[in-house]
Amino acid sequence: METAVKTNTLKDKIVSEFESSKGALFGGLKLREEALESFLKQGIPNRKSEEYKYVNVELMLKGEFSFESTKTISAKQIEHTKFIKDAIDVVIVNGVFSNDLSNIKFLPKGVTILNMADATANEVFQKHFSKYAEINADAFIALNTALANGGVFIHVAKGAIIEAPIHIINISKTAKNTIIHSRNLIVVEENAQVKIIESFESVNATAKTFTNSVTEVVVEQNALVDYTKIQNENEFGHLVNTTQVYQKEKSVVTTNTITLSGSLVRNNLNIVLDGEHIESHLNGLYLTNGNQVVDNHTLVDHRKPNCNSNELYKGIIEDKSSATFNGKIYVRKDAQKTNAFQSNKNILLSDDGTINTKPQLEIYADDVKCSHGTSTGKLDADKIFYLRARGLSETSAKKLLMHAFASEVVASIKLEEVREYIEEKISKRFE
């Protein structure tokens, strides 16, 4: 069903869409109703909101939109998006899981992959769904919880070591302005290991898409998760992406967030360390040009002692584009012996580019090692001169320096095919 949406009556249209579709939505109706109520109470964030002061969401939602759940697409049209050999490909088109385009028929032992709409009877799903992404914490989490009609549930059983990477491919293909709500739940039980890649691509999209995606990741004792997110939508793509990670003792999580394109990208990455001897590594790279807007918000919540977190985000800003990094490390009173480090580094390639950076520490424990820092500047003129003196053109020298700047983040990606894919995209971008 499609419902026209105008910004001046957006709340009313969302209520209308909810009432017309609630009978077909997965999950408990009570939770959905509570989420809608929370969204209506919070309202659409605008520049007056501290958390969204650099993102004009109201402007992004101007005009008419439809709520569209499906779109016909062929396997050949998305062939280029499956760039990882021997991966378990999970394809989501306009927020809805596609069994025909995915290859999940023969899964390795210990892995369960289900359409979210079919997962509601699963005990693990029932235990964890909507327990970590709180509807009162953010209006877009509430809106997604109320209206999400698709996505994927991934369960990695206790002790399972999954060699093949799981690739979640989010495809947007629209001929009219469309609002998409996709919801994912990933549960990795104790002593399990898995590599997950999530990519966002536009395929023949000719109209504006606003994708509101929420992913909950539960990592239990001694589990190991490597999670890489690649955002590569076209100029019509607008993405608000919330990833909520919950870690238990002795678990290790590495996240890599790579933003290559998209008109507007807002990433909310929240990690809760709720056990001792946990490791969390957060890496990010964003490349902006034209009038693109990229907004990264991270929160690392240290709740228990003897944990380590390391965060490195880098950005290259060109033309009239703008980027934001707002990172917060929260160390609770009981989280003694915490080691937490945060760094944000940026290069401005034009006088019209904008970077807003705000690394933060909020510490209530007294026996910790924490640091944060930020730097913003242009390419080093002395290094350019040095390279030109050795025969490189000015363009080649700048390209080499930008590659070197980005490589620290790209090198943290363990899967070679993914790393090569990103390096190829970066090379084309620098050209």
What does this molecule look like?
The protein has 2 domains: 5-274, no CATH class; 380-431, no CATH class. It has helices spanning 10-21, 29-42, 57-60, 123-128, 139-147, 381-388, 394-410, 416-430; strands spanning 5-6, 64-67, 88-93, 96-98, 111-115, 152-156, 166-172, 178-188, 193-202, 209-219, 224-232, 237-247, 252-261, 264-273, 279-288, 293-302, 308-317, 322-331, 338-348, 354-363, 368-377. Helix content is 20%, strand content 41%. The relative contact order is 0.09. Strands 1, 2, 5, 6, 8, 10, 12, 14, 16, 18 and 20 form an 11-stranded mixed β-sheet that branches. A 10-stranded mixed β-sheet has the order 4-3-7-9-11-13-15-17-19-21, covered by helices on one side. The protein is of the alpha/beta class and 431 residues long. It has 8 helices and 21 strands. Helix 2 packs antiparallel against helix 5 (139-147), helix 6 packs across helix 7 and helix 7 runs antiparallel to helix 8.
